[in-house]
Design brief:
With 214 residues, the protein is mostly helical. The protein contains eight helices and no strands. Helix 5 runs antiparallel to helix 7. The protein is elongated, with a radius of gyration of 23 Å. The relative contact order is 0.16.
């Protein structure tokens, strides 16, 4: 009986956790940011490679390389802020090169650069998936909650007002279950970000704590 009460408490408490709404906010950002990254990277890389023959493409590609590193750094920080996941720095080695070309060559040779590129490109379909899931869950929950109103205006599938009220009450549980689903989706997104946006080098936990507090 105690286990059932604990499970029920955990099921209901999801609506009162700050992290739940932080996760939902992160998922809401996924689609617009993923779309912007995809358009920028695909168009920039296509332009750069198409102009390689007249050498104009080289500086364009260098700028794109530098840009996606900075974008990936922003995404790493966004995941830390909103999802609260542990993501070590993308690079723990100091970059002594001050020139744009030197920094570009350093980052081109880093495996994290290419993992970050893959992450930014994959974020677009992930954003579409997140948007579809959220839209479905929100519309389903709202449709069930306002079912008595729909019944009164003749738009409900319920055969009686009592049935419409039962559907509305069920909508509360569907809404809570939807929050758990979104938390799971955010957890998967956080794990993916951690795998793709962190360096290979080992780091003490205190380094991340200092960065998050700075």
């Amino acid at each position: 009986m105690a286990e059932i009460e604990t499970a029920l408490r955990d099921f209901v408490s999801v609506a009162f956790r700050k992290q739940t709404y932080m996760n939902i906010l992160y998922l809401l950002f996924t689609f617009p940011l993923g779309t912007a990254y995809f358009v920028f990277l695909v168009s920039g890389l296509s332009l750069g490679f198409s102009l390689m023959t007249i050498w104009v493409g080289i500086p364009i590609l260098i700028l794109i390389f530098l840009a996606w590193w900075e974008i990936a750094s922003f995404e790493r920080q966004l995941a830390i802020w909103l999802l609260g996941v542990y993501i070590p720095p993308m690079s723990l080695k100091p970059v002594n090169e001050k020139s744009i070309l030197g920094r570009a060559l350093y980052r081109v040779k880093s495996p994290v650069t290419w993992k970050a590129l893959l992450f930014l490109l994959v974020k677009f379909p992930l954003g579409i998936f997140s948007l579809v899931v959220m839209a479905f869950l929100v519309s389903l929950t709202l449709g069930m909650l306002i079912n008595p109103i729909l019944y009164l205006v003749g738009e409900s599938f319920a055969s009686s007002l009592q049935e419409a009220i039962l559907v509305s009450i069920s909508g509360i549980f569907v809404g809570l279950a939807s929050m758990h689903v979104l938390n799971l989706l955010a957890h998967i997104s956080g794990s993916f970000a951690k795998r793709m946006l962190s360096g290979y080098e080992k780091q003490a936990d205190v380094s991340l704590v200092e960065e998050m507090n700075s």
